[in-house]
């Protein structure tokens, strides 16, 4: 059963927060007021029109950088996949040549087309090998991309309309500039705005 508490006095409830902290936690609508939103730290609160414009321009370029990172990561994933495919092909050719050499030395018959076909087990997908030259840069790119994405998310969560507009326009501009290099179906950056 639900009880309705219409005249509940909340002034006696001490939650260990001050009024300014409570009002910041309870704010759920965007504002255009200057000095109402801090950017990542409480000491980074633009209080003038110029400071807000500067923070918005910085967020605009950070959003563009976010889309650039997505394009770089996507292109790198394609390059790494090609490198691994060439590596697998070279290993497969070495194995085929070794089998052909062994058969040729034991008998005078030549290699047939059946010897060159991959086995059923080779057709199953398997995890690519761990290579520092591929996996370390992949992890670094992902970490940087996640860091920038979270910075943008926290800026939007400040509920400043100016920051939100700057980030959206920056993401659109970045997608316009770098979107053709991103393959969302292929690499997938995991960060969707």
UniProtKB/TrEMBL annotation:
Q: Name one GO molecular function term.
A: copper ion transmembrane transporter activity
Membrane spanning stretches: 21-41, 47-65, 147-172
GO CC terms for this protein? plasma membrane
Q: Which InterPro entries match?
A: Cop_transporter
Main location as per UniProt: membrane
Where is this gene product found? Answer: Membrane
Q: How does it sit in the membrane?
A: Multi-pass membrane protein
User: Which keywords label this protein?
Assistant: Copper, Copper transport, Ion transport, Membrane, Transmembrane, Transmembrane helix, Transport
List the Pfam families.
Answer: Ctr
Tell me where on the tree of life, at the top rank, the source sits.
Eukaryota
User: Is this entry keyworded Nuclease?
Assistant: no
Q: Can you tell me which family this protein belongs to?
A: Belongs to the copper transporter (Ctr) (TC 1.A.56) family. SLC31A subfamily.
Q: Which PANTHER family match?
A: COPPER TRANSPORT PROTEIN CTR1, SOLUTE CARRIER FAMILY 31 COPPER TRANSPORTERS
Q: What is this protein called?
A: Copper transport protein
In which organism is this protein found? Leucosporidium creatinivorum
Query: Lineage, please?
Result: Eukaryota, Fungi, Dikarya, Basidiomycota, Pucciniomycotina
């Amino acid at each position: 059963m639900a009880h309705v508490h219409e005249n509940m006095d909340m002034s006696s409830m001490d939650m260990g927060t001050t009024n300014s902290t409570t009002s910041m936690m309870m704010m759920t609508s965007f504002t255009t007021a200057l000095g109402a939103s801090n950017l990542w730290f409480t000491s980074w609160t633009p209080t003038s029109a110029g400071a807000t414009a500067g923070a918005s321009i910085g967020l605009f370029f950070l959003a563009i950088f976010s889309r650039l990172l997505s394009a770089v990561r996507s292109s790198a994933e394609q390059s790494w996949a090609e490198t691994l495919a060439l590596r697998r092909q070279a290993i497969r050719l070495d194995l085929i040549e070794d089998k052909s050499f062994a058969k040729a030395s034991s008998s005078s018959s030549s290699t047939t087309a059946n010897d060159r076909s991959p086995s059923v087990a080779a057709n199953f997908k398997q995890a690519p090998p761990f290579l520092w030259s591929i996996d370390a840069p992949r992890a670094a790119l992902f970490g940087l991309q996640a860091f920038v994405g979270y910075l943008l998310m926290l800026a939007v969560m400040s509920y400043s309309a100016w920051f939100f507009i700057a980030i959206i326009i920056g993401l659109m501009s970045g997608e316009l500039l770098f979107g053709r290099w991103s393959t969302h179906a292929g690499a997938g950056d995991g960060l969707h705005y």
